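Sample pair:
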Amino acid sequence: TINNLLPGLFDTERGRGAAALIGGGSGLSADEYIETLPAGRLGMIDEFGATCAFLCSQHAAYITGQNILVDGGNYRGTF
């Protein structure tokens, strides 16, 4: 079984730095950019860990070949 976890921005030093870089390209501070995210905040590392733990458990035994977005709704997709 192979599944992919696709993280968005998380509340880490690197995540905040990325928010500052991305926001700066639009003239926004890191905090202003973070407020524009659909979740209105950065992800917490525990949320990512919980998703990983779920996929490693028997509860996810029938899930295979998937790309799981853990990004607070930031990726808007095709539709």
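The two ends are 28 Å apart (CA to CA).
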